[in-house]
Specification:
Length: 227
C-alpha cells in the first residue's frame, strides 16, 4: 500500500477527446476469462480497432465478479449476463461514428453469441479516485514491486500518486502467453490527473481490457473495510 494525505482538488473541465462508447447487448453467457475472445471479436467487426492507439476494451463484469476484487476462481466458469449488462469501448471521439458499425452485429465470443443493439456515450469523470480491474506492468511478482513500477509509469505521465492499493494477481490467457494482471486503485489525484489517467491508461494490453480506469468510491472506505 502507498499512502499520503489528500490536498484540495481544483476545478477541471472534462474534455471530450476520449469517451466510452457503451453498447446495449443481448448475450446470455460469457466465460469469466473472455478478454482475448471478446477482443478478437471486436477486431473482426472493427478492423481499425487493433491499430488505434487510443482505443481500449472494457471487459464485461456482472455481480458475481465482486466489483473486480473477486471473481469465480475457474476462468472457464460462465458469467450470467442480464439485459442491463453493457459492452464498452474507450475510444477517441473521432472514432465514435466508426464504433457505431457494431450496432446490429452478432459477435462470436468463444462460441457465445453477443448481439450489439444500440450505443450511448459516457464521458470521462472528474472523480479523483480511480480503479482498474486489470493492470499489466512488467515487474516482479510482489505487491511492493508492482506499486513501485506503477508509480514510476505514472510519473512519466506527470502524475504523482498519493494513495495506491493493489489487489491479487489475475491470469489472462491468450494463445501466445498468459498475462498476469493486478487490480489497482489510485486516490488523491487532482481532477486533471484523473482525466489524464483515464485518457492514457496504465501499463499494456489495452485491447484486452487492461490499464483502463473507472471512477470508484473513495479508497479510505475500502481500506477501513480491509482493516
Amino acid at each position: 500500500m502507498h499512502w499520503e494525505e489528500n490536498t484540495p482538488a481544483e476545478e477541471t473541465a472534462v474534455p471530450d477527446t476520449v469517451v466510452d462508447a457503451v453498447f446495449s447487448i443481448s448475450c446470455r453467457n460469457l466465460p469469466v476469462d473472455h478478454a482475448y475472445a471478446l477482443s478478437q471479436a471486436i477486431q473482426r467487426a472493427l478492423p481499425w480497432f487493433a491499430d488505434e492507439a487510443g482505443a481500449g476494451l472494457h471487459t464485461i463484469h456482472v455481480a458475481e465478479s465482486g466489483n473486480g476484487w473477486q471473481r469465480p476462481a475457474d476462468p472457464t466458469a460462465l458469467l450470467h449476463l442480464s439485459r442491463r449488462t453493457k459492452l464498452a469501448l474507450r475510444i477517441p471521439k473521432e472514432r465514435i461514428a466508426d464504433a457505431g458499425d457494431l450496432i446490429d452485429q452478432t459477435l462470436d465470443v468463444d462460441g457465445h453469441a453477443l448481439r450489439v443493439e444500440k450505443i450511448a456515450l459516457r464521458p470521462l469523470s472528474r472523480i479523483t479516485t480511480l480503479f482498474s480491474r486489470y493492470v499489466v506492468i512488467t515487474t516482479g511478482n510482489d505487491e511492493a514491486g508492482f506499486l513501485q513500477a506503477a508509480a514510476a509509469e505514472l510519473g512519466t505521465l506527470g502524475i504523482r500518486p498519493r494513495k495506491m492499493l493493489c489487489g491479487l494477481t489475475t491470469p489472462i490467457v491468450t494463445p501466445p502467453r498468459t498475462l498476469h494482471a493486478r487490480s489497482l486503485m489510485i486516490a488523491g489525484l487532482s481532477p486533471g490527473e484523473s482525466v489524464l489517467l483515464q485518457q492514457r491508461g496504465l501499463g499494456s494490453e489495452r485491447k484486452l481490457g487492461c490499464g483502463l480506469f473507472l471512477p470508484h468510491k473513495d479508497i479510505d472506505d475500502l481500506r477501513r473495510r480491509q482493516e
